[in-house]
Structure formats: C-alpha cells, structure tokens
C-alpha cells in the first residue's frame, strides 16, 4: 500500500473531485484543507465568485464518477448571452445550437456536494490544516493547525490542488529549474446582487447570462436557484474615467450605475451597502512548469490559474481530473512518476491555450458583444456550423460544448477568426449575410489548414 498513500492539498472544487476519482480506485486518500468545515453554513467565500458557469468538460468529468444528475438538480441552464445596452434594450445571442447551454451553479453548494461525496466514499478529510511547506525530496508536509503545534506527515504521493496561491507550488519554486510567472490584469471585480422581485420571481430572464458591455468595463449577472442574480462588476482598478479608485462614496456608485447600468440599477436595492461591504478582488494568470517533482503534482488553479472570461477555470480543472484518471487506467497505480510526466506533457499545451483564450475573451465580453455586427458574425458562424458541422465549429462551441483539446480549438479558432474578419470587412455584410457563398468560406478553411 506504500505507493498508494495519497495526500491532496485543498478541498476546493478540484481537490474534492480528484479525491472522489482516486478513492473510487480503492486508494488511500486524504485531503487537507486550510479552511474550517463550513458545510451547512451559508457563508460568503472571501473574494471568490458565488456562482459560476459549468459546461461540457465539467459535466463529462462529473458523469464519470456518477455525479452528473445530482449536480444538475442545482444548476440553471443559460442558453445565451443577453446583452443590455445603455438604454435598457436587450438582445439575446445564443451560445450554441438550440438546447446547448452553460449552467449557473453556486460555488459553495457545489463544493459541499463534492466534499460530502468524497467523505461518503471514505476519503479522510482534515479541515483547519493549512499546508505551510512541502519537503519535496522527502515527501513530507508541514501543516499549521489552530491551537496546535505544527504537524508533519509523510506521504507517497502529494497533489497540490490548493489554488492560485498553492503552497506546494511555493515549495517547488524553491527548487532549481522551475519556471513561474504570475500576471495580474488591470481590472478587478466586485460581486453585487439583484434580489427576487416583490412577488418572489426572477427580475430578469433566468436562462441567460446577462452582460452590460461598456467598452473598458462591464457588469454581468448569473441566475441563482433562490431567484436572485449574482452580478459581477469588472472595472479597471485605476487610471480611467470609470474605475474602482474613483468610486469613493454612495453618490459615486449611484452616478456610475445610473449612467452606465440604469436598468440594472433599478433592480439593485442593496447596491450601495453591497458595494462598500463586498471586497474588490484581483484577477490573475499563473503559468508554471514543471508541474511534477518526485511524485508531487500540481493540478487545477495551482498549476494554471486563469482569468474567468471564458468560464473555464473550474471546467479545465475538472478535465485535469478526467485526463489524469484516464492515464491511471492505462498505466496502473504503481507508476506515479510516469503518469504525472505523461499528464503534464499532455495538459500543458491545452491549459496554455485556454489561459490565453480567457484573456482574449475579456475584450469580446466587455466590448465586441455590444457591436451589432457581433450578432451577425455569430449568425454566420452558426449557419456555417449548421451547413458544415465538421468543417466549421465556432470557437466558443469547441471550448464550451465539446472535448476538443483546448490547443486544437485555439489553432482552429485562429484560422476561422482570420476568415471571419475578412467576411465581416464587407460594409454590406449586415444586409447580405444570409446570401453569402458559404461553400467558398469552407474552401478557405481547407486552404488555410494546408498552409
Ligand atoms: C470571479 C471568478 C469567476 C469564475 N467563474 C468561473 C466559471 O464561471 N466557470 C469556471 O469553470 N471557472 C470559473 N472560475 C475559475 C474557478 O473559480 C477556479 O478555476 C476553480 O475554483 C479552481 O479550483 P481549485 O480547486 O483548483 O482551486 P480553489 O477553488 O482555489 O481551491 C483551492 C482550495 O485549497 C485550499 N487551500 C489553499 N491554500 C491551502 C493550503 N496552504 N493548505 C491547505 N489548503 C489550502 C483553499 O482554501 C481552497 O479550498 C472563476 C474564477 C473567478 C475568480
């Protein structure tokens, strides 16, 4: 059994799902989490999103361990983006084909389900255990436990699922030949809410992700099962006309919301209190390599934290678990070094690609979606996909509604982007988009692929 004693750092979404995967193989799995066991309490997670979008890659990973139906009961389908202009008019742009949706789910409740499931299967759970350091050569972990001396344990395998500020990664960084970068973007975010109406209904269409794109900044809203919406305001920290630094008091909040988000403003009775109570948080991209040293592995945000604009951070982390499990199937549970090596080699190009796409999608969300031509562009791509389902798959569909490796989606998406830029450059495109020579567009893809 020596080789099968596994310690996972972090009982977040990825650590708990990975615990389930590994326990299902009969392995001896322990998860160490720095937070208290907050199951059953409705506390606000500091600086973290309250709800998030779950899509196909995530569902696939949940399905493999039999959790899809349980989770689906908690999730609200969002079939497209509903764009709000400054006058309160809205436009709906579908995400994919009819019936294709991303799903809004509460982070806290979802995490609880995964932890409960891990516990039920027999994973050893240790809350209030903050990993301070990992001795990678000896595979020893040092923990701080409130009211105790420090605790030290040994483990044959250590997996860091402890998020963007991973302690295992910190220990790896002290070793030679470890590459690491972290980049904060110029924007931060703050969470706000739209409560249910007086008669207990959703204040807006619950089956859409609402976006108020305003060029350099934006507001978004995702539905919750209690008929409220969680809104996220993304603003530059400083240096522009509308930025966090320039909002000092309730009057400033009112002024920004009345000017740019007036229809949302009318649905946000607690705006001022929430604005000053809720934290303003930063957004980071983490890039590092290798993810593996001496049977210690980084996974999820610990190895590839990304900005949230493609709604893929968690989905990608779940796909990590799925891929790792596939490699365990192939190589068995005695060759951890081999499995981890294969894993990082396979995953790194994909996680690099989705991190980059997430950065690029910020511009699309906050700016491009408000251009009337954006809706036309999406319609042309949808038509191409309908006519040539294999030859043209819109990038959003490849990322969100398929399991095509992210790196492949990225490369194919760039080819399609160049072709679509040319198509959209026609000044009459708004009038003639449905009469285009679609076959010719597909021929251009074929040619570009051969170059
Ligand atoms: C605003 C925002 C919106 C997002 N929206 C989406 C979305 O719509 N869809 C999507 O797919 N992704 C989304 N993401 C990304 C998603 O939140 C992350 O990718 C996901 O939470 C990563 O999970 P994780 O388990 O790797 O890390 P985390 O969720 O960070 O979990 C890490 C866990 O480790 C614990 N921990 C940390 N340090 C230690 C330590 N030293 N010792 C022990 N335990 C420790 C933490 O307490 C935590 O429980 C969003 C992110 C943000 C910021």
From TrEMBL:
<feature type="domain" description="FAD-binding">
    <location>
        <begin position="6"/>
        <end position="324"/>
    </location>
</feature>
<dbReference type="InterPro" id="IPR002938">
    <property type="entry name" value="FAD-bd"/>
</dbReference>
<dbReference type="GO" id="GO:0006569">
    <property type="term" value="P:L-tryptophan catabolic process"/>
</dbReference>
<keyword id="KW-0812">Transmembrane</keyword>
<comment type="pathway">
    <text>Cofactor biosynthesis; NAD(+) biosynthesis; quinolinate from L-kynurenine: step 1/3.</text>
</comment>
<dbReference type="InterPro" id="IPR036188">
    <property type="entry name" value="FAD/NAD-bd_sf"/>
</dbReference>
<keyword id="KW-0560">Oxidoreductase</keyword>
<dbReference type="GO" id="GO:0009435">
    <property type="term" value="P:NAD+ biosynthetic process"/>
</dbReference>
<comment type="function">
    <text>Catalyzes the hydroxylation of L-kynurenine (L-Kyn) to form 3-hydroxy-L-kynurenine (L-3OHKyn). Required for synthesis of quinolinic acid.</text>
</comment>
<keyword id="KW-0521">NADP</keyword>
<keyword id="KW-0274">FAD</keyword>
<dbReference type="GO" id="GO:0004502">
    <property type="term" value="F:kynurenine 3-monooxygenase activity"/>
</dbReference>
<keyword id="KW-0472">Membrane</keyword>
<feature type="transmembrane region" description="Helical">
    <location>
        <begin position="6"/>
        <end position="22"/>
    </location>
</feature>
<keyword id="KW-1133">Transmembrane helix</keyword>
<keyword id="KW-0662">Pyridine nucleotide biosynthesis</keyword>
<keyword id="KW-0503">Monooxygenase</keyword>
<dbReference type="GO" id="GO:0019805">
    <property type="term" value="P:quinolinate biosynthetic process"/>
</dbReference>
<comment type="similarity">
    <text>Belongs to the aromatic-ring hydroxylase family. KMO subfamily.</text>
</comment>
<dbReference type="GO" id="GO:0071949">
    <property type="term" value="F:FAD binding"/>
</dbReference>
<dbReference type="GO" id="GO:0070189">
    <property type="term" value="P:kynurenine metabolic process"/>
</dbReference>
<protein>
    <recommendedName>
        <fullName>Kynurenine 3-monooxygenase</fullName>
        <ecNumber>1.14.13.9</ecNumber>
    </recommendedName>
</protein>
<dbReference type="Pfam" id="PF01494">
    <property type="entry name" value="FAD_binding_3"/>
</dbReference>
<dbReference type="InterPro" id="IPR027545">
    <property type="entry name" value="Kynurenine_monooxygenase"/>
</dbReference>
<keyword id="KW-0285">Flavoprotein</keyword>
<dbReference type="GO" id="GO:0043420">
    <property type="term" value="P:anthranilate metabolic process"/>
</dbReference>
